[in-house]
Specification:
mainly alpha; globular
Length: 392
């Protein structure tokens, strides 16, 4: 049976997608105050991975509860099919992003675009770059989230099987993998560039697994991490400390010196640094604390269900479409800003215009769901009028 959608998940997924769009158009004035990265160490990507894990746990874990009767493949297949869709979407977005910058270089004379966002290899070493794109070894900037998510969905069925029976064991294994990844710098290889993936799946799996376990528990009507007053205030205190770390003049530099001292004492770099690729401790805990605090506030459920939040909810319901459209719009926005760097109106107006375009696109794509909901309501009303017991 299909479960009713949780307004909080749709609302915050839509909000995070909007924040990702804003952050992916550097040079706009909204990026300096309207997104998560201005409030702490993490940005919208970490919270998006957590919510994606929650959504996956809710959507897919139910099939694994009866796998002994129905077999494993009916449970695994939808997740792997989704992973394949994400892979194809990534390839399309990569090619389209390259085309947008190539058009900007040809039509507007912006040849510098051909070396931005990791595109240099595409135009100077095309054969190897194409191999890298197809094998996910070469990922262009601002369009590199989907590969990690696709890989995680391939592994997610096995995580669900463990998580349903031994959630703590899965969490411990996930933490150990994250720690070992940062300690020994494990990563999937890049090609033809040296190095690895920007969103390292071995590290980023941790917050996805936390989300997955949360979604599995939520489907059973439980919380994976219970509401606890002490834990709430610890998480809230960490958020406040990080905010002070970012903005209090004397305090921030002192904390940075403390991290440098710990690094000098031999502490692993992913404990003391902010390297996004390896999901460092400071970024990870900030994102987890933020999600936990928000999830503990009853007012959030009420606020996210209000009518004014429908534009964000509809964007959240069409997550892949809106991420894809936002990624393409971000490349268009970067091209326009590079074309007219002195025109202050472009960065001020482009984000609102792009936001309207995303909402309209999501609304158009959501018509089938709305039509189905309206039909179900009409049928319910008709049946209740015909049935005296239902009417009573």
């Amino acid at each position: 049976m299909r479960r009713p959608r949780d307004s909080r998940i749709d609302f915050f997924r839509g909000l995070l997608l909007w924040m990702i769009f804003v952050d992916h158009v550097p040079g706009n004035p909204y990026e300096h105050w309207a997104t998560i990265r201005n409030w702490g160490f993490s940005d919208a990507a970490e919270s998006f991975f957590i919510i994606s894990g929650i959504a996956a746990g809710i959507a897919y874990s139910g099939r694994f509860a009866t796998w002994r009767d129905t077999g494993l493949w009916p449970a695994i297949a939808p997740m792997w099919k989704r992973s394949w869709v994400l892979y194809l979407s990534h390839i399309f977005l990569t090619v389209a992003g390259i085309a947008i910058f190539a058009l900007g270089a040809e039509a507007l004379g912006l040849v510098e675009l051909l070396t931005k966002n990791n595109l240099k290899q595409v135009f100077q070493n095309t054969a190897q770059a194409i191999i890298g794109i197809v094998t996910l070894g070469h990922q262009i900037g601002y369009m590199n989230i989907l590969p990690a998510y696709s890989v995680l969905l391939v592994a997610a069925p096995f995580a669900i099987l463990i998580g349903q029976r031994a959630p703590r064991l899965l969490l411990i294994g996930s933490v150990l993998l994250w720690f070992a990844t940062g300690l020994w710098r494990w990563n999937l290889p890049a090609y033809p560039n040296a190095g690895g993936w920007f969103f390292n799946p071995f590290a980023w799996q941790l917050i996805f697994v936390v989300g997955l376990l949360t979604g599995i528990a939520f489907r059973r009507g439980e919380r994976f991490v219970p509401v606890n007053r002490a834990l709430f205030w610890i998480a809230a205190g960490w958020l406040a400390l990080v905010l002070a770390w970012r903005y209090v003049p004397e305090f921030g530099p002192a904390m940075n010196r403390g991290m440098a001292w710990l690094a000098g004492q031999g502490f692993p770099f992913h404990i003391t640094s902010h390297d996004k690729t390896y999901l460092p401790f400071l970024r990870m805990t900030h994102a987890l604390a933020l999600v936990y605090v928000v999830s503990c506030l009853p007012v959030v459920t009420t606020l996210t269900a209000q009518r004014w939040g429908e534009p964000l909810r509809v964007m959240g319901r069409q997550g892949l479409l809106i991420f894809s459209a936002g990624a393409l719009l971000s490349y268009v926005g970067q091209t326009l800003i590079a074309w007219q760097p002195e025109n202050v109106l472009i960065p001020w107006l482009y984000i609102p215009a792009g936001t309207v375009a995303l909402v309209v696109l999501a609304w158009a794509a959501d018509w089938k769901r709305r039509a189905g909901t309206a039909g179900t309501r009409a049928l319910t009303v008709k049946d209740s009028r015909a049935d005296p017991l239902a009417a009573g």
